[in-house]
Every structure is written in structure tokens, then in C-alpha cells.
Amino acid sequence: MVSESTQQHMVQDWRVPVARPKLPAAGALLPFLEKLDQSRTYSNYGPVHRDLQHRLSQCFSLNGGGLALTASGSAALIGAILARAGRPGRRRLAFCASYTFVATLSAIQCCGYEPYLLDVGAHSWALDPIALGHHSRINEVGLVVVTCPYGRVPDFAAWQAFSDRTGIPVVVDAAAAFDTLQRQPGELPPGIPLALSFHATKAFGCGEGGAIFCADPGMLVRAIRATNNGFLGRRAVEGDNINGKMSEYHACVALAELEGWPEKAKACDQVAQNYQRAFRTHRQVRSLWVGGATSYAYALYHADTPEVALRVRAALWDNGIDSRFWYAFGIHGEAGFGPFARDDMPVTDVLSRRLLGLPFYCDLPEAEIEAISGIVARASTPARV
Ligand SMILES: *Cc1c(COP(=O)(O)O)cnc(C)c1O
Asked: What is the pLDDT of residue 2?
């Protein structure tokens, strides 16, 4: 028997879904796929993979390092953890935010660490490097994984300083940060790898895929090896590893996506601007997060209270418009996963119920954005009696 809410999810035919990914059309893939007929290399760092790796490293300033292409954002996280921290020694705890996507935790567990969930800052929605340094269990911590919530890029210098000061390895879950990193170009931290996802639902996608960005060349070598069964250059296994590399097929999609990226980013920017204009008209613009610091995978409505967010969600629902609490109510709120050791979660408990994901995709019609804004404005203002 499926629960009522599951059933509603299955049968509801949304007029406006919360996400509607658009990856390159079949015709755009064909020239890339035909290269595979020639090369007869379908994985293992073939020519398409190398081409993509080269072009992507030109898009980002990687400080003399580079990037490893992976099968998913999750594989990128595992590779980044193994390359930076390895498996745990005496310090078995891994600090991470409860307010994140489940894959952050799963990657930590796969590498053998015990996740320890922390609350986030009310404004940054992320871990605080200063507060962490004073945590009562800091001496048991062998790894910190910092999530970029909704693609928001953390203060890399502050995290590098934290890592230098404490000696604790830091890995950044930058799964949703492809476009935000591009919009805020800056040097990557020398000792901190970034794990990105190219999942279909992210702004830049290839179905399933990802990358590890490393400014440090030695760390990059370890990241490539850790996601290639421990091999690099010779047939001798070196270090803990998975098969987490990107196939030539996915590299084809990613190359086509990269070719169309300027246009896709422009379309997303237009949607973001339309949202801003509509919310301004309805005097709601202060409660809107779209574009800029957050990824083009999301439009977030920051309700004044959890009750308002629920009211808005219900009103959208009644109009055939889906919305989503993207990270649910924190990992500590998942009934079927964990429980994990954790701190109290005063910020996450409220923030996660106030930040509601509205529909966002590159061809979301302006008229729907106008409709969404009107519904949000009406549902968020209490009716006069
Ligand atoms: C999407 C996402 C992941 C997982 O990436 P996959 O490519 O789906 O494995 C991990 N962390 C965050 C914050 C994400 O948004």
C-alpha cells in the first residue's frame, strides 16, 4: 500500500513541475557519438573524455591543478575524500551539515567515516569554520565536508585557514556549484578539493556525471587514481579506490552541453530576471533567491515562517504547480536513514521549512513566473478579515 503522499506524487500531473531538465538534443550528440565509432574507446580516458577535461579546465581557473571527470557527483565526493583525507585513522568522525543532500552523507560513509551532523549558519546556510574550531568533539574529527547549499560558494580562504590551523582535511561538496563558481571566479583553495555534479537536475548536466576540481597537482593525481580502481599509468593498484570515472558516452553529452552552455546560461539568467521582476511587482523580492549567489538549478522562496512556506506550497499545489523542500528537513529528519550523532539543530529545523524551492528551468514561461509570483504574494499575506 502506498501512502497518500506517495500516491499524490505519482498521479499528480503537474502543469508546472519544480524542475524540467533540458539536456542536448539527440541531433547535437550525434557528431560526438560518431567519434566513438572511430575510437572504439567507450571509457578509460578516451579522446572525448580528454577533450572535455581540457575544455572544462579552461573554463575555470584551477591554479596549476586540474580536474578529474567522474561518473557522478557522489563518485566525485568519494574520490575527493580519498584523495585529500584517505580512509579514517584514529579520528573517525566526519563533520558535515545536516542541511544537505543525502549523497554528502553516503559518500562520507562509503569512505569509512562516521558522519557527525552540525547545524548551519542562519545566513550562510552552511557550516561555520570559526565555530567548528571550538566544537567539543573536534579532536575526534578526521574530515570536514562543507556543502555549498544550493550552489552558494563558501569562503574558501576561511576554510583553508581552518584546515591549516587544525590539520583537519576539508572537502567541499560543490555538487550544485558549476554556474555559481563561474559567476564568482576566484582562486581555488590550494589544499581543498571540490566535488561537482553534472546530474541532469543540476544547471550544467550530462545525465549522470561529475568532476573533482583540485588546485594541487599531487592531489589531482590521487583523485584520478582513486576514481580509476587505483590505477594510473601502470597496472599496479595504489590506494583505496572505486571505479568512479566518466564514460565516453557521458563525456559526449557533457561536451554537447558545454557547447550549448553560453546559450543555456543566458536562458537561465533570463528566467532569473523574470522572477526578480515579477517578485518586485508583488513586493516579495526580498524573499526570493534566484541566480547570483545560488545556482540556476533553483529558485528559492524564503518564507518568513514555516507556516507561510506550507501555505504557499499548498496554494501552488492547488494551481498545478509543484514546489520542493530540496534538502527536506535536514538529514537528521530522515526517518529511514541514520540516526547519526549530531548537535541540536535550531537553525536547520526552521530554515529547512522556510526555504521552499519554486519551479526553475531554462524555458519556464514568463506567464507561469507571473502566476507563481501572484500565488506566493497572496498566500504569504494573511487575508484581511
Ligand atoms: C546533486 C548533489 C549531490 C549528488 O550528486 P550526484 O551527481 O547525484 O551523485 C551531492 N550533494 C549535493 C549538495 C547535491 O546537490
From this structure: 44
Helix or strand (DSSP H, E) at 170: strand 170-173
pLDDT recorded at residue 5: 54
Instruction: Pick the residue whose CA is nearest to atom 1 on ligand 1.
Output: 175
Cell 567515516 belongs to which residue? 113
- Of 23, 70, 74, the residue with max ligand 1 atoms within 8 A of its CB, to mutate for a pocket test, comes to 74
Nearest to 279 by CA among 270, 268, 288: 288
Give 103 Cα–ligand 1 centroid separation in angstroms.
Answer: 6
Count of beta carbons in the 10 Å neighbourhood of residue 97: 29
Cell of 37: 565509432
Would you call the peptide bond into 339 cis, given omega within 30 degrees of 0 as the criterion?
A: yes
pLDDT tens-place string over residues 60-79: 977 678 999 999 999 999 99
CA of 379 to the centre of ligand 1 (A): 31
φ and ψ at residue 324, rounded to 5 degrees: -155, 135
Residue of 297, 293, 249, 286 lying closest to 152 (CA atoms):
293
| Cα 8 to Cα 137: distance, rounded to the nearest angstrom | 43
Ligand 1: centre distance to CA 325 (Å): 15
DSSP 67-124: EEEESSHHHHHHHHHHHHT-S-SS--EEEEESSS-HHHHHHHHHTTPEEEEE---TTT
Q: Considering Cα of 144, then 147, then 148, then 151, what sign does the dihedral take? A: positive
Instruction: Give pLDDT tens digits for 40-61.
Output: 999 999 999 999 999 999 999 7
Cβ-proximal residues to 28 (8 Å cutoff; 6+ apart), any chain: 256, 259, 260
Look up the pTM and report it. Answer: 0.96
